[in-house]
Design brief:
With 162 residues, this protein is an alpha/beta fold. It is 44% helix and 12% strand. A five-stranded parallel beta sheet has the order 2-1-3-4-5, with helices on both faces.
Length: 162
Amino acid sequence: MHDVFISYSSKNQFEADLVKEVLQSNGIRCWMAPDDIPFGENYAKAIPAAVGSCRIFVLLLSGAAQMSPWVSKELDLAVNGSKVIIPFVLEECELLDEFNFYLIGAQRLNAYQKKSDALQSLVYRVQALLSLESAPAIHVTATTRVPEGLHTLDPDLDRRIA
């Protein structure tokens, strides 16, 4: 069982892995292809089931994501399934008509400005939406200033982000 479905272009794999790792380190269960698709299972069967059973749909929005037919289909499933959609904007980009239509009223998190702040906001928003009464402490801190960096309680993750 998962709380969040993460939709992204494979060209944004690093950012997707980072978002998943930060959310999961804060007690939020995530589903993300291809990691969560069992070997031999059909993508066209697994992805709709995962979108259908999630509570929140996190869209890693970029130019590449807008060009991905998979992301477009996943977003369509989320909209038609009345999922809460959180656009996590990876880069400043103009929305294509289809994405503009789907996201016209959605508040966006601009991760390209301050990634660490955006990740922290994402964790807070997801926790609030999931009504986690006893949420674990946030593992993303800004105690040390590193431009566009993220500090976590995991030194290996810090090295990969820095």
